[in-house]
Design goal:
The protein is α/β, with parallel strands linked by helices. It is about 35% helix and about 20% strand. The chain contains 12 helices and 16 strands.
Length: about 375
């Protein structure tokens, strides 16, 4: 197929050269947030993360809801912390038909119509040294995120306790071994994980190593929060796995080697019941280590998804656990999905160990602050 010759493809406005990412930036953490018809939880997502960040770069595309108005209101509220831009080109990414898929696959890697270029456009606006992706349907643990970002911001070296360093190494290698082959000699998991995280903060402070963050998928039924346990459904929307993030939410140093590229991930398309998708993957990322659970994810209670989730709830009620019960239950007593599309084995093993090691009290308090107001006239998150 011939390269697109639309006005956006013939313009330099939306084209991004990754070499420009090499410029010197201020020490600090930038968030990048893409928005497309995300009005439902956008304000709460911004409120939960912006005070931890040095800046939040928001780029919105093809919005027909109140998202642009919410973005402008939040920019007025937080002043210079928020910078926002409209990304005008049409993006071909999810749930494509055959013609759209053939078109976008034939375009060059700097095409404004690629989701990866949309991400790179956001990166091009970043003014700080470190970057993390923010999603419009994730409500973050603000205090924990502040602690992490402070470590990336710090210019002062701190002493690393040898015992905590041993705990970090011991827990990390147990995590890798368990993910690879399901073998672990780790006991006192919560203790070792607590020491691991304390040491990790010091390693971030001193060496600015990359980390990835995770969260919980949640749903709202009968005035309570529930966690989906995963299930592949042939003719209806899938029930998601309990965990969100799965190593793709990273805090990393922005360089000319770190940029987003097009990625065809068949498992992603199958998971989301899409016939064709062309999404993005982050290239050039150095080794990153897991930090733990940092948000709850509200995709399952978006208006466009909720009727389908209600149908799943009524038909497969056993595939959901009440949130507090879930986080307090040992992983070997949770009936996780065994389906490789919904929850690949390595991810299941990794998150099972993190699940058993995490202190659940902060997340329980955090989600307990919120409830959903859902009826025909209103659909929003409230405290």
């Amino acid at each position: 197929m011939i390269k697109c010759s639309c006005a956006h493809c013939n313009s330099e406005v939306y084209k991004v050269d990754a070499d420009s990412f090499a410029r010197v930036r201020q020490r600090g953490v930038s968030g990048i947030l893409r928005v497309k018809n995300d009005a439902e939880f956008l304000a709460e997502a911004i409120d939960s993360c912006v005070n931890a960040l040095d800046e939040l770069i928001i780029v919105y595309n093809d919005c027909s809801d109140e998202s642009p108005a919410i973005i402008k209101k939040k920019a007025e509220q937080y002043g210079s912390k928020i910078h926002y831009y409209e990304y005008v080109p049409k993006i071909y990414a999810n749930n494509l038909n055959a013609d759209e898929y053939d078109f976008i696959k034939s375009q060059p890697q700097d095409s404004p119509h690629l989701l990866s270029n949309y991400y790179n456009f956001a990166l091009s606006k970043v003014n700080y040294e470190f970057v993390m992706k923010i999603d419009a349907d994730q409500i973050y643990l603000t205090n924990s995120l502040v602690e992490i970002c402070n470590a990336y911001r710090s210019d002062k070296k701190v002493f690393i306790n040898p015992w905590k360093l041993f705990c970090f190494v011991f827990f990390y290698f147990n995590l890798i071994a368990y993910k690879k082959c399901g073998i672990s000699i780790l006991c006192c998991k919560k203790y070792f994980f607590r020491q691991y995280k304390r040491c990790l903060l010091n390693l971030i402070n001193n060496y600015k190593i990359s980390i990835y963050l995770s969260g919980y998928n949640v749903s709202w039924f009968e005035k309570k929060w529930y966690v989906p346990l995963g299930q592949f459904n042939e003719n209806t929307p899938n029930i998601l796995s309990p965990y969100n993030g799965v190593t793709d939410h990273t805090i990393f140093r922005l360089t000319s080697e770190t940029y987003f590229a097009p990625a065809e991930i068949k498992e992603y398309a199958q998971l989301n019941s899409h016939k064709y998708s062309l999404i993005e993957t982050l290239r050039g990322l150095p080794i990153a280590v897991p930090y733990g659970f940092m948000w709850f994810h509200l995709n399952g209670v978006r208006r466009k998804m909720y009727d389908c989730q209600i149908a799943n709830w009524e038909r497969y009620r056993g595939r959901y656990m009440e949130f507090e019960e879930f986080v307090k239950t040992k992983s070997n007593n949770i009936p996780y999905s065994e389906d490789a599309i919904i929850f690949p084995r390595q991810n299941r093993l990794l998150y099972s160990l993190l699940h058993d090691s995490s202190d659940d009290s902060e997340m329980i308090r955090h989600i307990g602050k919120y409830q959903m107001d859902i009826d025909k006239s209103s659909f929003y998150l409230k405290k």
